Amino acid sequence: MTISLVPLCTATITLADPLVLPNTPSGTRIIVEVIDAVYEGERLSGKHKGVAAADWMTVGPEGTGTLDVRATLETHDGALVYVTYRGRLDLSVPPGSAPTYAAPLYETGDDRYAWLNRIQAVAKGTLDGQTLTYEIAEVR
After folding, report:
1. CA distances from 4 to 12, 27, 51 (A)
2. Taking the complete model, does pTM exceed 0.85, yes or no?
3. CA distance 122 to 13
């Protein structure tokens, strides 16, 4: 069995300044709120909806960042889609010098996008200042 990746979209995310909480019981916690997000692709396109979107990342002592992201997007034709993903980021190197890897899951009650409820996606991102850009694909 071969794994294939089917392009889903490119997400361009504008991030707020991080809130850093060192020495929590979980390690260092970095909370980064989403200011805006635009999803562009033939299969999925839309914009960030609402203000409740952020990454509640934890950072281990060796510099491994573990992502914990939740957000809502509104498709170009008005469907609401809940997005959640976990992932990893190497923070032992300067920000932006290592890719971010994630595994998005989507939830919607809109029949036009019910197919999103059944897929697993993967993403590879690059950080440039406060802009995070992900290439996102469906795993088949």
Report:
1. 23, 36, 34
2. yes
3. 16
Question: What is the 8-class DSSP label of residue 53?
Answer: -
DSSP string, 104-120: EEEE---GGGGGGGG--
Can you point out the beta strands (E) in the chain?
5-15, 19-24, 27-40, 46-48, 54-59, 64-75, 80-90, 100-107, 121-128, 131-139
Cα(32)–Cα(106) distance, rounded to whole angstroms? 20
C-alpha span between 134 and 1 (Å, rounded): 26
Residues 6+ apart with CB under 8 A from 55: 30, 31, 32, 34, 67, 68, 69
pLDDT digits (tens, 9 = 90+) for 84-112: 999 999 999 998 999 999 999 999 999 99
